[in-house]
Amino acid sequence: MKRLLSIELQKIWKNKASRVLTITYFILLTFIALIASIKFDLGIFKFHLAEMGIFNFPFIWHFNTYIAAILKLFLAIVIVSMMANEYSYGTLKQNFIDGMSKKEFILSKFLTVILFATLSTVFIFILSLILGFSFSSYTELGIVFSDLQYLLAYFVKLVGFFSFCLFLGIVVKRSAFALGFLLVWNIIEGVINGVLSFKVFPETTTAASIMQFFPLQAMSNLIVEPFTRLSVVKNLGTQIGLNNIKIYDVALSSLFIVICWTTIFVFFSYKLLKSRDL
Question: Where are the domains of the chain?
Answer without folding.
Answer: 2-275
